[in-house]
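Re: export button greyed out
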Amino acid sequence: MNDEILNGLLLDEECTLSLGEMSRACAVHAEWILELVEEGILEPSGEEMRHWRFTAPALLRARTVMHLQRDLGVNLSGAALVVDLLDEIQMLRQQLGRMGGG
Amino acid sequence: MEFEDYYEVMGVKRDATQDEIKRAYRKLARKYHPDVSKEADAEEKFKRLGEAYEVLKDPEKRAAYDQLGQNWKAGQDFNPPPGWDAGFEFSGGGFTGAGGGDAQGYSDFFESLFGRRAGGFTGGAGRGDFHMRGQDHHAKVLIDLEDAYHGATRHITLQVPEVDPGGHVVTRKRTLKVRIPKGVKQGQQIRLAGQGAPGLGQGGSGDLYLEIEFKPHPFYRVEGRDVYLELPVAPWEAALGGKVKVPTPAGVLDLKIPPGSTSGKKLRLKGKGIPGKQPGDFYVQLKIVLPPSDSEKARAFYEKMKQELPFNPRAALGV
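Workaround output, generated via the alternate export path:
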């Protein structure tokens, strides 16, 4: 085992990813990320495609969509609905925790 | 090695039709999908399900598996009989389960029967000048809330498929020591450049993305960078006010409770949440706890309160 301590880059609120980094991190073609943007699943900042910047949570979202497509055969609009509902469930769980129910 | 009963895993009878198997898979896959399910061992169940389906959906593999006989029970010690697969040819086929780029292997049982899956390796290796950047890998790392306050070093063990000199794909364990920076939040990712899959030819290695997940804490609750605690107080502490000790992940702090506090009152300790450029706050919610009336002395005291304090807790309800 290597004993060296690795220092990574924390993808915090200020850190964004390019279209290339997104497609590489998902191991997909950029066209697939493009479809996610067209479907409204991802909302990059920047006008032109080559200036697009994605947030780190967008990467997790894209990967969830990828898993849903691959494992469950969900189509893109179905996956869009699922990730929106997952976000909502997470928000509701937090609210529940705040009320002392969780 | 233990025998895996794939029919049991999928909850179908041994004579189920291919359609029934497909329906059972779809239903269970939705239930145990790690992105959707809240079941504690969803990932493990989903993996086993994917493996079972990989065998049962493929008529060739299913027939070969069935030929092993119905006398095996799940969990029994198992070694494939020699020549058990004679006459079958496995054509591979796509992978449906939880593997993909996430480097999750099949069980030893599966691999002893159907061989290893060459995950992540595409053709072209060793054929002249072929360069390709290695794949990015993703993993989760569980940390304690305290680690987010102070930073920490964590060991992470990854399973990496590799080709050995004989051309077989083997899974190698790789342990990394990673610095968890102070101030991380639940769900944030750390990118480790060059720690993903090795590239081919002169293509560089991929990156490794680590997603941070907090272990559930027995009394703190985390929301973004804010941390919440339900703090038990005695009735007289709430009524008369006073200084009490409060545990926080950063250490024990003194908290002043204003006189006349009610149960459920929220007090904020500014900037005592998870540190960061904009540090979170620490919220304390008071919970008034009654002393037990388990002694003569305590009962006499409650009796005295009843006599001397004119108090109707239900006044607001009109009764």
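Residues 91-103, 117-127 of chain B have pLDDT under 50 and may be disordered. The button fix ships in the next patch.
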